[in-house]
Amino acid sequence: MRWSPPKVVGMLVRGAIPGLRRVHAQVAVYAKAWDEANALALASSGPLWVVLGDSTAQGIGAPSPDEGYVGQLHRMLSAASGRPWRVLNLSKSGERVAGLLATQVPRLEALDASPDLVTCAIGSNDVIRRTPLSELERDLREVLGRLPPGSVVATLPGGLSRERIDAVIRSAAADAGLRIADVGAHTGPPWEGKYAEDRFHPGALGYADWAAAFAEALGLPVPEGENPASEPPSR
Q1: Coil, strand, or helix at residue 17?
Q2: Which CATH superfamily is domain 5-218 in?
Q3: Residue ranges in the chain assigned as alpha helix (H)
Q4: Is a pLDDT exceeding 90 seen at residue 14?
Q5: Mean predicted confidence (pLDDT) in 148-158
């Protein structure tokens, strides 16, 4: 097998740094957990929430999949409605906008019944891996244009150079009748205690800020201690 230099570097780093290795090991485990949960969700009844996104939607960095923002927001949704919501998590670790457009959006569109809620948080990997801006903006607009009206789309998290991309997200969301979860406003320095061992993905406390951003967009009450407005994110 022929490896490109970035893959080789990534393998060496993961092998040398225990924290990175432990977080990376979550990827396959969490994906399997969500696949199993998705099968149960499709076989049951109740309001359906479809999640689109990358490793943050998988909960990578949190102690367990249900301590990511999806799990935390799921509990808020169920508590507010008085009945359990089903979660169909179509996200994939490492996903970029083009990949979400090619695989996750068609899976959403192929569902037999219309979901009660769709959320989407994507674009961070494109910024980090420097997807050409023209391609990123084009694909973002197509993704958001294909989401059902009323879906919730996230801005990019704090710590990234995000002004231009957030402007595209807000513009395309307005055109498509989508709601905005302002993750960028809910995340940012100081960062202490909010990151996983790899110092890249959020930990459970960091994901609480993500969940609060989505809860705000949905008009849900945020449990005490999970509102970043009262306690700024830290690193």
Answers
A1: coil
A2: SGNH hydrolase (3.40.50.1110)
A3: 5-16, 18-43, 55-58, 69-81, 97-99, 105-109, 124-128, 133-146, 163-176, 183-186, 204-218
A4: no
A5: 96
